[in-house]
Design a protein that fits this description.
By secondary structure, the chain is of the alpha+beta class. It has helices at 32-52, 120-131, and strands spanning 23-25, 28-30, 60-63, 69-79, 82-90, 102-104, 109-114.
Length: 140
């Protein structure tokens, strides 16, 4: 007899399936499909909110008419007398000698693959960016 976990039927490797579990959402009973639908709606709302505001550092996205994925690493950078909303590095490579930083504005974003970490400090910083219209640096 083999003790290899991957031997045998796939169904034998799992403790249960989605119908074996119950969930509560806002004190109401829910099934797996309800939970999945709520999470999809939240993700969609987060993406829409991000597109209407500044996306957080660490967000992975693509630009219109470009195939590369980028990861946002900063805001409001001036390059050749133009102030861009964002600058980013190529994902998953980061900053290295083979890849240059990309500069772009909100309206250039086509798709968001992952939204970066958001906490109170990030929200405060982004609010400062939005209120700072002269393009000069500021601190929180």
């Amino acid at each position: 007899m083999s003790n290899n976990f991957n031997d045998g039927q796939e169904s034998d490797r799992f403790i249960g399936n989605t119908s074996d579990y119950s969930y509560k959402i806002n004190d109401n009973n829910a099934n797996f499909n309800d939970l999945n639908s709520i999470l999809e709606n939240r993700a969609s709302k987060d993406v829409n909110d991000a597109l209407n505001n500044y996306v957080p550092i660490g967000t992975v996205l693509s630009l219109k008419n470009k195939d590369d994925k980028l990861m946002v690493i900063g805001y409001k950078l001036q390059k050749e007398s133009i102030i861009f909303d964002y600058f980013a590095c190529n994902y998953p490579y980061g900053i290295d000698s083979n890849h240059t930083q990309q500069y772009f504005n909100k309206e250039d974003i086509e798709k968001i693959y992952h939204i970066g970490y958001i906490d109170e400090q990030e929200k405060k910083y982004v609010n400062g960016i939005e209120e700072n219209t002269d393009g000069k640096s500021f601190s929180i």
